[in-house]
Amino acid sequence: MMQEDNNAATIKQLAQELGFEFCGIAEAGFLEEEAPRLEAWLNRNYHGEMAYMANHFDKRLDPTKLVDGAKTVVSLVYNYYPEKKLPEGDKELKIAKYAYGKDYHFVIKDKLKSFLNRLKEEIGDVGGRAFVDSAPVMERQWAQKSGLGWQGKNSLLLNRKMGSFFFLAELIIDLKATPDNPVTKDYCGSCTRCIDACPTDAIVQPGVVDGSRCISYFTIELKEELPTSMKGKFENWMFGCDICQDVCPWNRFSQPHQEPEFLPHPELEEMTRRDWEEITQETFSKVFQKSAVKRTKLKGLQRNIRFLNDDNT
């Protein structure tokens, strides 16, 4: 047990040195309670056109199927709350705060590679894999299991010290480490601000989101034309949406991140509505060269802007 305690202490020390705000540890195993919930969510087609969500059902629930000999899931929190928000007035076209700077997949993946390498230097031969929202890992469930927070009514992980404006990442490793206690209390209480504020009624019940009704889904994942039934409901969000986070009382504890890579491109800070409406491929490629916004491609962003402009004509 002493060795497992030492391993846990080493993991947490490395996490802190690499700039992660929180680090939690859970024993790897089958997420028995999640299996029926995931199945019900998929059966209701809440994943919409995101077919990948239905793939690898077993792997999604069992990390030992992702990493041979997996014994531990290390969950990590990395802050992205900006010191200065881009304009979010009634007339502004808006993008989600997580997409202001460089694509988080690249930034955090590099940190996780360093994490694994340093873990091997400190402890010895440790096998494992790093994940940043890029594989069938139920990251919010593992984060809750490892004591990092609870799932709010908007289904996002909430942390009492910093709200929800953060990325989650995982290391699944074959090293035993003393697990943390899960968060079993729901600190949302009777608050329903996120449910009340969602303009597309995507939060169908506390903790359950119909992904196929979410503004983030429409503006990023959906590749076809946007449904006319959603006209006037996007509140000028052209890439992603922060509404359910912006209204959450726990986000009053959000603190600005310290990651230079997440700072917006200087031209992005100067963009007006007219600039967005007239954006060219050259500008798009320059401003969003390493950004998550590239996922929509220029064509997708222009589709979203046309849709929002139709709302205002």
Automatic annotation (TrEMBL):
UniProt subunit comment: Monomer.
Lineage of source species: Bacteria, Pseudomonadati, Bacteroidota, Cytophagia, Cytophagales
Annotated cob(II)alamin binding sites: 60, 133, 154, 157, 168, 216, 241-242
Gene3D superfamilies: 3.30.70.20
Record domain 4Fe-4S ferredoxin-type: where: 179-208
Catalyzed chemical reaction(s): epoxyqueuosine(34) in tRNA + AH2 = queuosine(34) in tRNA + A + H2O
Pfam families: Fer4_16, QueG_DUF1730
HAMAP family: QueG
Organism this protein belongs to: Echinicola strongylocentroti
Active site: 133 (proton donor)
Keywords: 4Fe-4S, Cobalamin, Cobalt, Cytoplasm, Iron, Iron-sulfur, Metal-binding, Oxidoreductase, Queuosine biosynthesis, tRNA processing
Family affiliation: Belongs to the QueG family.
Keyword Transmembrane set for record: no
UniProt-recorded name of the protein: Epoxyqueuosine reductase
Domain of life per record: Bacteria
Keyword Metal-binding listed: yes
EC number: 1.17.99.6
Subcellular location: Cytoplasm
Cofactor binding: number and manner: Binds 2 [4Fe-4S] clusters per monomer.
Cofactors demanded by this protein: cob(II)alamin; [4Fe-4S] cluster
Binding site for [4Fe-4S] cluster 2: 198, 214, 241, 244
Chain sites annotated for binding tRNA: 223, 299
